[in-house]
Design brief:
single chain; alpha+beta; three-stranded antiparallel beta sheet
Length: 149
């Protein structure tokens, strides 16, 4: 799914960045060598953007994990800057499971966890299997009817 989003972004960036190149080409009427360099530079930048947006999701996915245990949830993510987020069950206020159109197409979902506190008051897990997101949500919610006022 992230690769599809990357392709859409690449096409959008190619179209938007082609406008200034076209305007310069028409308005300034530069020599053929300059036009060739402009088009070559534009094509190179769009190609590099497309390659990065195609490869990055797999790299990011390899460096992300989560662990569900009795005390709560631990999320590890980051390629260059690593982050470990611990969400104790006692701090969970409520959870949401959401699906966008692309997530629905691939049977994926996003689990949003809202906690008490300021730092990481909302923690999200993207790209989960939709049923897995519900299972984690059910695990994190209080087991007994307790009014936590």
């Amino acid at each position: 799914m992230a690769q599809l989003v990357g392709a859409i972004v690449t096409v959008g960036a190619a179209v938007v960045s082609a406008l200034p190149v076209g305007i310069i080409w028409v308005a300034a009427r530069p020599p053929a060598l300059v036009v060739g360099l402009m088009l070559g530079g534009w094509a190179l930048l769009v190609s590099l953007l497309g390659l990065w947006l195609r490869k990055w999701p797999a790299i990011s996915h390899r460096h992300a994990s989560f662990t569900v245990h009795d005390e709560g949830l631990e999320i590890r993510r980051g390629v260059f800057w690593r982050t470990v987020i611990s969400v104790p069950r006692s701090r969970v206020q409520h959870t949401d499971v959401a699906q966008g159109p692309l997530e629905r197409r691939y049977g994926l979902g996003t689990l949003d966890i809202y906690t008490a506190g300021r730092a990481h008051a909302k923690v999200d897990l993207h790209g989960l299997d939709y049923q897995t997101a519900f299972a984690i949500r059910d695990h994190l919610l209080p087991q007994a009817e307790v009014d936590a006022v």
